[in-house]
Design brief:
Strand order of the largest sheet of chain D: 1-2-3
Order of helices and strands of chain C: HEHEEHEHEH
Chains: A alpha+beta, B alpha+beta, C alpha/beta, D alpha+beta
Helix content of chain D: 40-55%
Shape of chain D: globular
Oligomer: heterotetramer
Radius of gyration of chain C: 16 Å
Structural class of chain C: alpha/beta
Largest interface: B-D, 33 and 40 residues
Distance between the termini of chain D: 49 Å
CATH architecture of chain D: Orthogonal Bundle
Strand content of chain D: 5-15%
Number of strands of chain D: 8
Helix content of chain C: 25-40%
CATH topology of chain D: Cytochrome-c3 Hydrogenase, chain B
Order of helices and strands of chain D: EEEHHHHHEEHHHHHHEEEHHHH
Chain lengths: 192, 176, 163, 371
């Protein structure tokens, strides 16, 4: 009986201690962030939405290879010798048309493994985190700045150029090595 | 406290046929190779011998050695035939503080290993996992069911190197 | 409110006003099914905890689907779990809303390629209203997703949808 | 007179607020008493081991994050140690110190969730809110350092992804000073609350020999009274340089190894973690954190098993390398997976309401149980 009363008293007493603590907390400043009205500044290293500065991209495909989830899709077309694609902001010469640079941000796991390999520092993570969508397809971000027609054109240009080169080389090879026909076929095989 | 070589010598003396050898190529600890049907007797010895006292099984892992020959089946997918599946046992003594690794290899076509359920109860779920992932059958395990995959999964053992994912499971499309 | 949901074939002033009232009531008390799946669930818990306080938007976790208005699918949905989620979804009374939180629920996320046991997107099983990207999304991002959902509810109507 | 009665099967989960995720329990009941518990797992099986076989070594690190999502730093830690052992590389001193500090901060953050949810399940809502408030402070430290709140991908093979922020040392010290009194407050609020003690003391007693036979590790094993901690036992990184104690369960309010002991070990462990951080933060040497990161990680043929003391117990990585860029096999010895096995044993003979108290005291993370 004595133990029972003691236990009861102990129960009430410890609850009162707890209540004292909660009461004290009534007078501490609130920590809640009033989100839509107040937005706390994020630290500089914060990792949110990926962004690609396509003007600086040289189409080297390094980020896509580093990505563990393969959410970056890059397609490039080689430029023709006469074309000038300009340089990136840190002075690298561009040699490839980036016809497709898609990031499926819905797949991205925000690990930042794609950022360090980039030689021109054109892919980086921004502090934008508010980009929810009603449709999932809107989460595929297309960064390439060539229009589709342009991309097709570049592709066909390059193919034409390649074909011309091939033809001229075949003519050249035929001219230089006329007697040795088997070698020529071998070369052809290699080019395929 | 004993090092793995000493334990190997001790085991070799006790069970001359069941101990197949010691593999020292690993950069960390050597691996003692054991005949699959004998693993339970050896485990009991390892646990109960006062000099060894391996009272805890750290991890039991199934491995597909992928050392068989690859053949193409009618759909054109690679299927491995022949070769072995292995089970690694990492043991540890809480009181004597020594560690040891055991390995058993069993043919891929009929993978059967004696269960160590009665030696270390930890092995219960580990063995079920190895069965789930590799299809290794642990003899005398009291409750050998799938553990991580659904109970009605009938598309094979996912961690085998030649596993092929099914197209549908209960009407849900599986591939992306 | 299943009886009143999308029942009226033509709108009038009364329906329009009732619409507003209903939408306001619905959007300001989105009771969610307390339902954590994976990593995102921890961020969801953090959202309901002191710093972000989900309660400000009327979001209270309910432990049974029959009292809930919305599910936040917070994390990876595996094939084993998908059938259960479908069942839970079916038990929620109309109108019901789904927020898909995080990469995994959106499309399988990091597991889309080799995940033999991962459902590649919860929208293969149940319809999704808002996709919140992130892995895991920040609590603010989830709140923003909720605001988007409220936006959607605000524009709903009791009228039948014209095709 | 013994009436012949039938037992009843009660299903709990996978959607249940107190199962800490998607665990399904099949309870066999005799009235209110539990006769048998069958856990069904796998509802969050995310195929980590298959992914590890398809990725290169550094690409596996983001996936290790996602296993035990409450202790991502420690998962990274264990993995990078394993790969470094396989490669045979030494990391710079500075990296070791930062790793230890991050690991211990993560241990505190993880225990805060464990304690908070344990209390929440039993009915104590206020501590949950207070602890999440404190956890948010640790998360902001992590966010400042590596940019992510939950899944960090911070420790890389041979180094770290970022150096610490210039303010990190100051803010961590501030956090330690802030957090010490909070633990006392928590003790007053929850630990020694009579109602909490009544719910947890003498509930789910785990005897030591059962614990060892079932392979239980971490706070659950220490709660049973054995001072077994891999940080001391099989010391890794630079843990041998710090002075700290291993708290064990003593049965202060009940039997040794009951739920309350497992809970209290966590609180004592947080204090020890603070001690380690205090010692380490003053000793961080200067240097580069990316010095030893290899360009291409291609370990030699071989196998390695390393273990670290995760907040939940022994986290082991068993890696087989066949000399290629991808690991041949990565097996994870997940502490929660092993600790959950003993759960059925603990519940036998208790009431239904005790199930969640016991489950909370084991502190499982389903991401790690199922991987």
């Amino acid at each position: 009986m004595k133990q029972y009363l003691k236990n009861t008293w102990y129960g009430i007493w410890t609850v009162l201690i707890g209540m004292k603590i909660t009461f004290k907390h009534l007078f501490t400043p609130a920590v809640t962030i009033q989100y839509p009205d107040v937005k706390v500044p994020l630290p500089e290293r914060v990792r949110n939405r990926l962004y690609v500065n396509i003007d600086d991209c040289i189409g080297c495909d390094q980020c896509s290879r580093a990505c563990p989830v393969n959410c970056i899709e890059i397609e490039t077309v080689k430029s023709l010798p006469g074309e000038n694609l300009g340089t990136t902001s840190n002075g690298k010469k561009k040699a490839l048309w980036v016809t497709k640079f898609n990031i499926d941000i819905a797949k991205c796991c925000y690990c930042q493994l794609c950022v360090p390999p980039c030689p021109t520092e054109c892919i980086y993570m921004t502090d934008v985190y508010e980009f929810s969508e009603f449709e999932r397809d809107n989460l595929v971000y297309k960064f390439a700045n060539l229009t589709e027609e342009e991309a097709v054109e570049k592709k066909s240009n390059y193919e034409k150029f390649q074909a011309e080169k091939e033809a001229s080389r075949q003519v050249g090879a035929a001219a230089s090595a006329k007697p040795e026909t088997p070698v020529k076929t071998q070369q052809e095989n290699k080019n395929e | 406290m004993k090092n793995p070589e000493e334990i190997f010598e001790l085991l070799k003396k006790e069970f001359p046929e069941a101990i197949l050898g010691i593999d020292k190529e690993a950069p960390t600890e050597p691996i003692i190779l054991i005949d699959p049907p004998q693993i339970k007797t050896i485990s009991l010895f390892l646990r109960d011998n006062p000099e060894l006292r391996f009272d805890s099984l750290m991890v039991l892992s199934g491995v597909d050695d992928a050392n068989g020959t690859k053949v193409k089946d009618e759909d054109g997918t690679d299927v491995i035939s022949g070769g072995t599946l292995s089970v690694y046992y990492h043991l540890h003594s809480v009181y004597l503080k020594h560690k040891i690794t055991l390995k058993v290899s069993t043919p891929r076509g009929n993978p059967q290993v004696e269960s160590v359920y009665n030696v270390w109860r930890t092995s219960d779920w580990h063995e079920r996992e190895a069965f789930d992932m590799y299809g290794i059958i642990f003899l005398n395990h009291p409750d050998l069911r799938r553990i991580l995959m659904p109970y009605d999964w009938n598309a094979g053992y996912p961690l085998r190197k030649d596993y092929k994912n099914p197209e549908f499971y209960q009407g849900m499309k599986v591939p992306y | 409110m299943g009886l009143l949901d999308k029942e009226f074939s033509d709108g009038n002033v009364v329906i329009a006003k009732v619409d507003d009232l209903f939408n306001w009531a619905r959007l300001s008390s989105v009771w969610q099914l307390g339902f954590g799946l994976a990593c995102c669930a921890i961020e969801m818990m953090a959202t309901s905890a002191s710093h972000y306080d989900f309660d400000r938007f009327g979001v209270i976790p309910r432990n049974t689907p029959r009292q809930a208005d919305a599910i936040i699918i917070s994390g990876t949905v595996t094939l084993k779990m998908a059938t259960r989620i479908k069942r839970l979804y079916e038990q929620i009374p109309d109108p019901k809303y789904i927020i898909s939180m995080g990469s995994c629920a959106n499309c399988g996320g990091p597991y889309w390629e080799h995940g033999y046991h991962v459902l590649k997107g919860i929208d293969r099983v149940i319809p999704v209203d808002v996709y919140v990207p992130g892995c895991p999304p920040r609590p603010e991002a989830l709140l923003e997703g909720l605001l988007k959902l409220q936006e959607k509810i605000r524009n709903e109507s009791l009228r039948k949808k014209t095709v | 007179m013994a009436l012949k009665t039938e037992t009843m099967i009660l299903n709990m989960g996978p959607q249940h607020p107190s199962t800490h995720g998607v665990l399904r329990l099949e309870l066999e009941l005799d009235g209110e008493l539990i006769v048998n518990v069958k856990p069904h797992i796998g509802y969050l099986h995310r195929c980590f081991e298959k992914h590890a076989e398809a990725m290169s070594y550094p690409q596996v690190i983001p996936y290790t994050d996602r296993m035990d999502y409450l202790a991502s730093m420690y998962n990274n830690f264990g993995y990078v140690i394993a790969v470094e052992k396989l490669l045979g590389i030494q990391v710079p001193e500075r990296v070791e110190y930062i790793r230890v500090i991050m690991g211990e901060l993560q241990r505190i953050a993880s225990h805060l969730v464990a304690i908070g949810t344990n209390g929440l399940d039993i009915g104590a809502f206020t501590p949950f809110l207070y602890l999440f408030r404190d956890r948010e402070k640790i998360l902001s430290l992590f966010e400042m350092t590596c940019g992510a709140r939950l899944l960090y991908n911070y420790m890389w093979v041979g180094g770290l992804s970022h150096d610490i922020h210039p303010d990190f040392v100051r803010l961590t010290k501030e956090f330690i000073n802030y957090f010490r009194p909070t633990i006392t407050e928590l003790n007053n609020l929850l630990t020694f609350n009579k109602i909490f003690i009544e719910r947890t003391a003498n509930i789910g007693v785990l005897p030591l020999d059962t614990a060892i036979n079932y392979g239980v590790t971490g706070p659950s094993l220490r709660g049973s009274g054995l001072a077994f901690d891999i940080r001391k036992e099989d010391t890794y990184s630079i843990y041998d340089r710090f002075d700290f104690e291993i708290p064990v369960g003593q049965g202060l309010v009940g039997t040794v190894g009951d739920s309350w002991d497992r809970y209290y070990v966590r609180i004592l462990e947080m204090e020890q973690s603070l001690r380690i951080i205090e010692q380490a933060i003053d000793q961080i040497p200067d240097g580069d954190v990316k010095a030893a990161i290899p360009k291409r990680i291609k370990p030699p043929k071989g196998t390695v098993y390393t273990r670290v003391e995760n907040p939940r117990g022994e986290l082991g990585y068993f890696i087989i390398s066949d000399g290629n860029l991808n690991p041949f096999r990565v097996k994870v010895r997940a502490p929660s997976f092993v600790n959950l096995e003993v759960f059925g044993e603990l519940c036998k003979g208790h009431l239904v309401a005790d199930v969640i108290a016991i489950l909370g005291s084991i502190d499982i993370v389903l991401g790690e149980v199922d991987r």
